[in-house]
Design a protein that fits this description.
The protein is α/β, with parallel strands linked by helices. 34% of the residues lie in helices and 10% in strands. It has a 6-stranded parallel β-sheet, with helices on both faces.
Length: 308
């Protein structure tokens, strides 16, 4: 879940509007308006998918035969991964991605670059179709997946569903595997949100609500095993995270002999990290590369894995 300032301000607005409804003051006299955007990165205003992705002419090196499919987070898009994708391409990987969750009825869709906002069940099916298309195009037997925040949680939903047998490695970055409290915001507004689901979805997007720790979706996905044998998992997390909270939500439990590395980015790389911007961070880019190349059973990263 990205766009931290926007999301928190939106949730505060949501809480105010819903409180008025619950208190019997009638509907708001004006539709809620998203706050002004904070300073953005150098991403274009109307980003298309960068040509480093989805290149059918890309020939992977023999060491990296699996196409790598990126799953972006909530309120962002695949441009978050461009720097990392260029690095992986230089190492012999072929990269694929898709801007998912764009068809929902939410005010956040009006913000350029805000995607991943639709119901998560629909996004899982959307990405499953994308992976099938990548396999058909490349002739590969399996893909490796890299997911950030909601995208990381989608890797679990996918591998435990239609993706069974189609994934070799799964690397997650600050994933919301068990949902999030958004640093204590969710418990405060949860009952109001549940009582006014349609209005809430219109303001912040269905996927935001689906990732609340007490949501029906998280209840269903939490009932599934975290992992499955045969996939090499690398879960990157940061204890300073204030979006995917508590930070243990981003960790995986090894089930059925799965190969799992839970990596505290701060402890390994020697500095603090915030949730926002993680995929564009040099250390994370190199740890993703480590997760895609580490030997089976090598579950401990070192500071050397944080840099070239």
């Amino acid at each position: 879940m990205e766009g931290v300032t926007i999301l928190r301000n939106s949730l505060r607005a949501l809480a105010t509007v819903l409180a008025a409804v619950i208190a019997g003051t009638g509907t708001a006299t004006a539709a809620p308006v998203l706050p002004a955007l904070p300073a953005q990165s150098s991403l274009p205003s109307h980003p298309a998918i960068n040509p480093v992705f989805n290149d059918p002419s890309c020939i992977p090196s023999p060491a990296h035969p699996n196409p790598v499919v990126y799953f972006h987070g909530t309120g962002t898009d695949s441009n978050d991964f461009v720097d990392g994708a260029h690095f992986l391409r230089s190492q012999g990987f072929c990269l694929w991605t898709h801007h998912y969750g764009t068809g929902s009825d939410t005010l956040r869709n009006l913000v350029p670059g805000h995607r991943g906002l639709g119901p998560i069940d629909q996004s899982v099916e959307e990405l499953a179709d994308v992976v099938d298309g990548v396999l058909a195009t490349t002739g590969a037997q399996k893909v490796d997946v890299v997911g950030y925040s909601q995208g990381g949680m989608l890797t679990k939903a996918y591998t435990q569903g239609r993706g069974a047998g189609k994934v070799g490695r799964a690397v997650s970055i600050a994933a919301t595997f068990r949902g999030t409290t958004i640093d204590g915001v969710v418990p405060v507004i949860g009952s109001a949100v549940n009582a006014n689901r349609a209005s809430s979805e219109h303001l912040v997007g269905a996927s935001t609500l689906d990732q609340f720790a007490d949501s029906d979706f998280i209840g269903r996905i939490s009932a599934l095993p975290d992992t499955t044998a045969g996939i090499i998992y690398t879960a990157l997390y940061t204890p300073s995270d204030t979006v995917a909270t508590p930070y243990q939500t981003s960790m995986l439990e090894a089930v059925d002999g799965a190969d799992v590395a839970n990596i505290n980015i701060e402890a390994v790389c020697g500095r603090g990290f915030a949730h926002q911007g993680l995929p564009r961070t040099t250390e994370v880019i190199h740890l993703v590369h480590w997760g895609l190349t580490r030997a089976p059973g090598q579950t401990t990263a070192t500071p050397e894995n944080c840099r070239a």
